[in-house]
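Section 5: illustrative case.
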């Protein structure tokens, strides 16, 4: 069971270098992350983006990128489409977002999924190392689904459960966050949580549903232990929770688990250390997916 990022770094070094396509690493932070991840043996990178901007960023870091394969591109959707197609065509182990908006990447992943008829929905999980917690915590969805309905929430949970399975958690606990009114009609998020408990409360989905609906209830219950997965009711909540590392001492990274493999989703405002975590996690997930497909675990 992987319970901290130090273990992820260790495994990335053992299982790497993974083939990594980086979409527009055109600024100092992203290029610095690639330099470190390559030096540590996590990745063997491939760049797609503006050649001049990538070279300038590399020169600022005294990073010799002459031997790294590159494809020139300026249109963000074309860059995303090309890189994600490489993942689905098994030409790379993982993809990482660079200095382009995430919406282009989500659109590219959805297009490839629909083309192959494998998945109807994608989501972004923010994986966190929380001080004092003996396990990793995933918050989802933090990037794609604005106001998911019940069916979408089930798919989001399944993606997060797979993520936690790959990290060694066989039967993760799930809390569906929602407010609970004393007066007036129940919120849809609360009704969805009740329905999920009715349909999956027997553990048939491969996860345990916790009875709480808020962090306050978790600590009021006397358990004082966080679940493995928080499902947020809508995107605003997820995006706020995913940025908690800017105000409290948690470490986090974000990923999309497509049917073809992991796509690292660092924020454009992230610093080098956080981006390296995203890449290292992607290497570990890609390796474990291969092992799972080969029946090695």
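Designed sequence:
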């Amino acid at each position: 069971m992987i319970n901290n990022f130090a273990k992820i770094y260790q495994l990335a070094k053992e299982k790497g270098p993974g083939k990594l396509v980086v979409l527009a690493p055109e600024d100092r932070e992203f290029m610095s992350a690639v330099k470190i991840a390559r030096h540590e043996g996590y990745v063997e990178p491939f760049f797609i983006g503006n050649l001049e901007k990538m070279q300038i960023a590399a020169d600022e870091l005294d990073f010799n990128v002459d031997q790294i394969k590159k494809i020139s591109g300026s249109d963000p959707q074309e860059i995303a489409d090309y890189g994600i197609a490489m993942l689905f065509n098994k030409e790379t182990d993982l993809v990482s977002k660079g200095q382009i908006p995430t919406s282009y990447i989500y659109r590219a992943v959805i297009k490839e999924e629909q083309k192959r008829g494998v998945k109807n929905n994608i989501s972004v999980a923010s994986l966190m190392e929380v001080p004092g917690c003996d396990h990793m915590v995933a918050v989802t969805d933090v990037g794609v689904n604005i106001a998911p309905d019940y069916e979408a929430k089930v798919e989001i949970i399944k993606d997060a459960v797979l993520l936690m399975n790959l990290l060694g958690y066989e039967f993760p606990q799930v809390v569906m966050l929602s407010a609970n009114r004393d007066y007036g009609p129940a919120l849809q998020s609360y009704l969805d949580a009740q329905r999920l408990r009715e349909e999956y409360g027997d553990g048939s989905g491969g996860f345990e549903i916790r009875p709480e609906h808020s962090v306050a209830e978790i600590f009021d219950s006397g358990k004082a232990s966080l679940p493995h997965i928080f499902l947020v009711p809508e995107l605003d909540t997820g995006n706020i929770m995913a940025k908690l590392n800017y105000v409290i001492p948690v470490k986090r990274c974000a990923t999309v688990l497509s049917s073809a493999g992991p796509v690292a989703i660092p924020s454009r405002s992230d610093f080098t250390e956080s981006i390296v975590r995203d890449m290292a996690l992607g290497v570990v997930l890609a390796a474990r997916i291969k092992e799972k497909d080969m029946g090695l675990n």
